[in-house]
Amino acid sequence: MRITCPFCGERDRREFYYQGAAVALERPVADAGEEAWDAYVHLRDNPAGVTKDLWYHESGCSSWIVVTRNTVTHEILDCTLACDTKSEVSI
Amino acid sequence: MAELIARPPCQGLLPLEIGTTTLSETDAGVLTSIMPFKGQEAALSEALIAAHGMAMPAANRTTGRAGIRAIWFGRGQVLLIGPSPHEALAWYAALTDQSDAWAVVRLEGAGAVDVLARLLPIDLRATQFKRGHTARTELMHMMASITRVGDQAFQIMVFRSMATTLVHDLKTAMEGVAARR
Ligand SMILES: [Zn+2]
Hints:
The complex is a heterodimer of chains A (91) and B (181).
Chain A: E1 2-5, E2 9-12, E3 17-21, H1 34-42, E4 50-56, E5 64-70, E6 76-81, H2 82-88
Antiparallel strand pairs in A: 1-2, 3-4, 4-5, 5-6
Chain B: E1 16-18, E2 21-25, E3 30-36, H1 41-52, E4 62-65, E5 68-74, E6 77-82, E7 93-97, E8 102-109, H2 112-117, E9 134-139, E10 142-150, E11 153-159, H3 163-179
Antiparallel strand pairs in B: 1-2, 2-8, 3-6, 3-7, 4-5, 5-6, 8-11, 9-10, 10-11
């Protein structure tokens, strides 16, 4: 598996640390209620298909990257900087 | 006060000459990480030109020359190698002295690319990775900085604490390449 870092280009998977589902980009507002916070902290989807993860270019440029990939085909569909994505999310 | 004696990271380990490649330690001088403040990238580059005669490098690139170089060192970070940083740079960026934190070595010779191909997961052939190109990548699980500094010469940097491992891994790869010639 190869991930395209927006800075470094296409790199081997071994250079990256896998953080998990990209839920940190959808943090609820403080008073969103117990249900929203319970889901944010504990509940994860386990999709057979397209999913979004956070990966860290640990031994590369130290960027956090939002990777959109297909868990069935292992296809990588999109790689963007988490800092850019996050600034688009209203918190 | 105790008299402290400066000791190079690879003292007693280098130089090495195996087959067609040599490995030597580089006395890089002062190492300073430069991390530009938000929105100050252009002003910082102007200040670097005025103070040290080279612009801030783009991602995966270097500026300057042997002895005084700026190499891209990761997201939002450039490493100034050689001179003490001019104080004006601190107006536009966070400067951190890293002089004793890194082992800096030079691998040179006809087999250098073949040696590194055994250790790094990136394409270092001359058509892909030219003089002045640099990369942050991993060398046998160590976070590393690789720069092509000549047609057959590379600068390799890892954390100082890993100097012995770096030399061991490079030496093993150099022996492997030499054995197959
Ligand atoms: Zn990267």
